[in-house]
Amino acid sequence: MKQKGLKNENGETKAVEITIYDYFVNHRNIQLHYSTDLPWINVGKRKRPTYIPIELCFLVSLQRYTKALKTLQRVSLVEKSRQKSQERMNALFNVLRTSNYRAEPMLSSCGVSINSNFTQVEGCVLPTPELRVGNGDDFFPRNGKPSRIERWAVANFSARCGPNNIVQSLIRCGEMKGIRIDHPFDVFNEMGQNRRLPPVARVEKMFDIIQSKLSDAPQFLLCLLPDRKNALFGPWKRKNLSEIGIVTQCMAPIKVTDQYPTNLLLKINAKFIRLQL
Fold it and tell me: CB count, 10 Å around CB of 188?
């Protein structure tokens, strides 16, 4: 609806409500053909809207969208714009191979020539960085070897993820990166009745299950949390690192992409390297 001021016989202005369709057709003399079945576009503000029929609107090219994207839109944009190095190289090579730049008259008149092959440059090996460990001793890492994960298990606090798929992805990614990962002793799933307990009690219940099935303490524990910002993180870390002394890594497997296991292995490998120093 739209308010419009009309004058009566006494010259007084009276506000009446009419439809936006009547306003454009009867007062602006603009014929609308199919706007009654389509949504109208608000080009004003939320509190003071200004509606325009969609058939009277045109898209202007090269216009920037300045408002913040939604979460799903931002994720979709990153996924589509992200390319692996080899994929980007193949795309550029196909452009150079299929585009006949030598026959372009504009480039020839300007004296510009584009080679169809990539330019090769010499690379350099950077020196090993100096590290300071222990009591301030200088350490130069050399002959680096990836860690081996042998005695480990999975503690699953998440009811909606498939831990077996995550374990297989981690082992497969470790083989590609040169990190040998044995199959875990077991996957310990949290009991349903324990999910309503406080975080500290849930951690204690999980360790009761682990200690009842494992005679020795595992070398490494992979913890699957229900979400990223979870109250279990603090008690779990404190139990493993302060009280028992077990290497642990937490993850929230909401969406496991191809890069996720690689980033996870970087953290796990660094923790095992610190134990060896």
Answer: 21
